[in-house]
Structures are given as structure tokens and as C-alpha cells.
Give the backbone structure.
Amino acid sequence: MTEQQQIDAIRTALRAIPSEYFSAWPGGWPEELGTALVEAVYSIQATYNAKDPKRGVAGRLRTFRTDHPEARNDLGALTTIGEERIREIMGDTKVSRGRKYKSVAVLEAAENLRSLSPAVNAADDFRKADPNEVQRAYTSVNGLGWVTFDYLGMLLGRPGVKSDVMINRFVNEALAAEDLPGVSREQSKALLTAVQEQDAPAENLTFLDHAIWLHEQDRAADQNLDEELQAPA
């Protein structure tokens, strides 16, 4: 098995995705670090869209932005809101490792980012900071890992792949269709990066990731696989 065989298998699978999905990325929150941080953490093992607008990450996030515009791009303001208020709006779910509320993880990550030198308090600070230092600050919070850190960067305008359950499933099913062995989340990310570099099926990696996510969301809805819409940390 060669990497090119893997890339060709993924290329074939991508043909099943509607063309409009490759330009459907809604844009994230490039100027809202507070919003992006809340979304990244609350995306862990969660349903993003729900029929009831008061449920699901998307609906709750809209409420959060409306009620607390001061925290959209200010981690200091986000910490001032407090854990209980964040939990009241965003829900009382917990991170996948341990029994910590996601609201607690949000505030711990915010404090870690603000403690860097120079401090990361707003979106522009995030983009200017050393990516390795920022990742260490984020992933040092128990329950937060590299997958949602990648997603945080994507929401802030940094092209990338959030190698969660759905993305990894798509890649591994593409490989299995060509009788190729499965790969890890890290390898899925690397292969999609290689596909984007070779073929540029989307504007950038984030657009490619989102196209696959939409396709897998459709499949999950058709097959009633709600549990597979969940993302790891």
C-alpha cells in the first residue's frame, strides 16, 4: 500500500459529495476568540444543529453571542461572565475525560491563554502567537485535546482539518472501499492535507473538512446515527 493509493481512494470517495458542499463553510468566527473558544469546547461529543433552536451548540451559541457581546472577542470579559452563566446558556454537559463541566474547561483554557506572554486575549493575539505555545496552553486543560484545538484554529481563520469521528469515518470507509487498511485520526488528517495539496477540491482545508462533515451529517441523519455526530476532544 502506498500513500498515493490512499489519496486516490479518498479522491474517489469525494466524488459522492455534492459540489455545493465544497463552498459551504460558513466562515467561523475570525474576529471572535471568545465565541470560537466556547464553540470549540462545546463541540465535544455534542449535536451541533437541533430542531429546537434552544438546543444544540449552534442555537445556544447564538444566545450566548446575543446576551454577551462583550465576550465575543475578549477572554477577560469571558472569564468575568463566570462559569455558572456560561453553563446556564450553553448547557451542563461535560468534557469526555473526567467529570469537568465544559464551562469550567472554557474558563481554564481562557485563563491559560491570557497567562501567555504576550497574553492571548483576542483573535488577533491568537494569530500572532506561537502556535505551539497556544496549543500547549489549550491542551493542558484536562479534557481538551488537539482535535478541538485544530477546530479552534479553523474557527479563527486558520485552514485545517478537525479529525473527529465523522472525518475519520469518511477516510476509513474510503480506504475500505478499495480494500486498504484503516488509519488513525492523525493519518486521516495527513491524507486529507495531501489530497488538498494535490487536487485542491475546495478553497482550503477547512472548506474540504466542512464538505465532508456535511456529507457525513446527511448520512447520519438518513441512518439515524446521531451518536456518530459526536466529536472527540
About this structure: Confidence is low (pLDDT under 50) at residues 226-232. Residues 205-223 form the longest helix (19 residues). The radius of gyration is 18 Å. The CA atoms of residues 36 and 72 lie 8 Å apart.
